[in-house]
Design a protein that fits this description.
Chain B: Keywords: Membrane, Transmembrane, Transmembrane helix. The complex is a heterodimer of chains A (262) and B (261). Chain A is mainly alpha-helical and 262 residues long. Chain A has 13 helices and no strands. In chain A, 71% of the residues lie in helices and 0% in strands. The chains are: A mainly alpha (262), B mainly alpha (261).
């Protein structure tokens, strides 16, 4: 509890700083909304001519894009600092974090606020909402609870992959998170149904870097779409595995950390 | 002229030194190519849609990839930060024209980008099968269109970066530009798929010249006469944006405040 409260206070400091730059916030918000609108126009134009893509309809695709957008939004708004880890290591800024009585990973991830995350959460939420309204799923209390669990798991997987790939900076010692960014780009492939890709890509996105568990597998299970639906039920387990692995990698990396010296 | 040549060489050298950054900058374009190839391969496996067959769509997406790759060695980030933190003042005292200097830098990195495009296009065609090149006149028109694409894309990127004089924020402007370019150029989906009014707007916008025009000419989806019109539109936009950007630069300089000395 104390950890969460302190986390919000740490973020709050950066948030207040950001509010000083209203125009910045507006430009970023508009730009991210525009990006999602372009995605939607693309999907709408595509599905106006073809009814289904490997069993996926327009609305189920919107649902998938929405989940990715929401997960990325949560990452930017609450955990943007992760992307500064490479810089923090390179500059020796972790020295300060290490002497404070608070988890180092959380101090690092709270070191910045990506205000564009706010608009991504809103737009992602809207996409999920309208997507769900247009697909026929019989909603029982158990299914609603499962849906919420799957969504939370998706977000955890997204955050864990970001933390793990950024923690690679402990070994790579570059001042910019090139590796993490490259992996994030690869993850963009998982916006589309995994079934359209060749086997090698399926293995990468399903197992090595489980981006497919952020949207494809859970949504496929929830909507009963495509083959091997049951895999979606594994999402919470994958989330636990990813979180554990990310924490482990971060811890091992932290042991390698040597200050930049003064 | 010598100064511009030196700038061009310097960009190529810096692109080669920071080659990982260059490749990473192209990651998004490459990922989009892979994803869209996979999507269209599934969709067009049964029948053609909107008159596009799978071999045609493949070529279309490769042209989009090429268009997305050129002009990426141009340091729009560097230019933006120099404007934002005032280092641009140093550029003002140099005895070269600012816009021409940036264009020279763009040209300097071009050969590296063309090499990369060659590799990706070669591998893709080797894996998915060959391509039928159009007849002489159409091919010539395609080459002209691809050549015009370079200054056109440069001017769009350059002009949007000049907005930093007004916005004090670059990332947002860049994201918005990328999104609009992706849609209206036809890189994300051929303009023929868009709703009629949007397709018309896109067709006459400067963005169509960034993918749609060369791709349609190569595929022979427009005849040579129509192709000439489209290339003329491209050329018109290049001229208009070149002088428009100069006006913007002059207006931007009047807003520039540099603190300290």
């Amino acid at each position: 509890m104390r950890t969460a409260r302190l986390y919000l206070r740490l973020l709050g400091a950066h948030f207040r700083a950001l509010l000083e730059y209203e125009a910045d916030f507006l430009i970023l918000a508009l730009a991210t909304v525009l990006m999602q609108v372009v995605n939607l126009v693309f999907l709408a134009a595509l599905f106006a001519r073809v009814p289904v893509l490997n069993g996926w309809t327009f609305w189920s695709m919107v649902l998938m894009f929405g989940t990715v957008t929401l997960a990325e939004g949560v990452g930017s708004l609450f955990f943007e600092g992760m992307w500064n880890l490479a810089w923090q290591i390179n500059r020796g800024e972790l020295d300060y974090f290490l002497v404070r009585p608070y988890p180092v990973a959380l101090q690092s991830s709270s070191a910045a606020v990506g205000i564009n995350g706010l608009s991504n959460i809103v737009v992602g939420g809207l996409m999920i909402g309208t997507g769900l309204a247009h697909v026929d799923v019989v909603w029982t209390p158990w299914r609603v609870a499962l849906g919420v669990l799957l969504l939370i798991s998706s977000v955890v997987i997204k955050l864990s992959i970001s933390l793990a790939t950024n923690a690679a900076s402990f070994w790579l010692s570059s001042p910019t998170p090139l590796f993490a960014f490259a992996m994030h780009q690869v993850g963009d492939l998982a916006r589309f149904p995994l079934s359209i890709y060749p086997m090698a890509l399926k293995a990468v996105l399903g197992v090595a870097l489980p981006f497919a568990f952020i949207s494809f597998f859970p949504v496929a299970y929830l909507l009963d779409t495509g083959q091997s639906r049951w895999v979606g039920l594994l999402t919470p387990l994958v989330a636990a595995y990813c979180a554990g692995t990310a924490a482990f990698i971060f811890k091992r990396g932290l042991r390698r950390y040597e200050s930049a010296g003064n | 002229m010598r100064a511009y040549r030196a700038l061009a060489r310097a960009t190529a050298r810096s692109a080669l030194t920071y080659r990982l950054n260059l490749l990473l900058g192209l990651g998004t374009v490459f990922v989009q190519l892979v994803a869209l190839l996979a999507v269209w391969r599934v969709i067009l496996a049964q029948s053609s849609v909107n008159g596009f067959t799978w071999p045609q769509m493949r070529v279309y997406l490769l042209v989009a990839f090429a268009a997305g790759t050129v002009v990426s060695a141009f340091g729009d980030f560097r230019m933006a930060f120099r404007i934002l933190d005032g280092d641009v003042a140093l550029d003002l005292v140099k005895p070269v024209d600012y816009q021409k200097a940036r264009f020279a830098e763009t040209i300097g990195g071009l050969w590296i980008e063309v090499l990369l495009i060659g590799v990706v296009v070669g591998v893709t065609l080797a894996v998915t099968g060959g391509v039928r090149t159009p007849a002489g006149p159409a091919l010539a028109l395609f080459v002209v269109s691809m050549l015009l694409l370079v200054p056109l894309k440069f001017l769009i990127v350059y002009g949007s970066t000049l907005l930093c004089f007004w916005t004090q924020n670059f990332i947002g402007v860049q994201w918005a530009r990328l999104a609009v370019m992706n849609l209206l150029s036809g890189a994300l989906i051929p303009l023929a798929y868009l709703p009629g009014w949007l397709a018309t707007v896109a067709q006459w916008s400067p963005f169509a010249g960034l993918t749609s025009t060369p791709a349609l000419i190569f595929l022979g989806r427009v005849d040579v006469r129509h192709g000439l019109t489209l290339v003329a539109v491209q050329l018109g936009w290049v001229l208009l944006l070149w002088f428009g950007a100069r006006l913007m630069w002059r207006a931007g300089l009047r807003r520039l405040t540099v603190n300290g000395g």
